[in-house]
Fold this sequence. Notes:
By secondary structure, this protein is of the alpha+beta class. The protein contains three helices and seven strands, in the order βααββββββα. It has a single domain, classed as START domain (Alpha-D-Glucose-1,6-Bisphosphate, Chain A, domain 4, 2-Layer Sandwich), CATH 3.30.530. It starts with a strand and ends in a 10-residue tail after the last helix.
Amino acid sequence: MKSLRGTGSAVIPATVEECFALLAAVDRYPRWYPDVVREVRVIETGAEGTPSRAHVTLQVAYGPLAKDFPLVLAIALDRPRTVRLTRLPNEPGDDEQFDVIWRLEDRGDTRIELELEARLDVPRLLPIGGIGDVMADGFVQAAIAALGTPEEPDKRG
């Protein structure tokens, strides 16, 4: 098992509601980030018709090496501020982990932040140093592009 951690953030000229709608629609991630999110198949929906559980295939790639990870994710929504994606174990004793938390903050524009933490069975030859931040930033940049807004640097105070 190898551990990955990463964060990414930006401030964008879109509303919190627009950002939340994009991030809550997990079934649409392959449309706006196909390089990593290869497939999403919703297996359960919540009261509002939004996905609450899904089979997801992610590709982790570094240089010429790549591996697909089939996951079952629980999707928890705290409208309109947080979208949490949590890997569900396949069987007892399964200790792989994959957690993504999207946080949104209304600042006139919207601050969008992603925190990624994973522990996955990755091939020995796949170097993962720094890949968590690269993946997190890639998700944020893809979301910004999907929202059709130019990125503004995150100006934390």
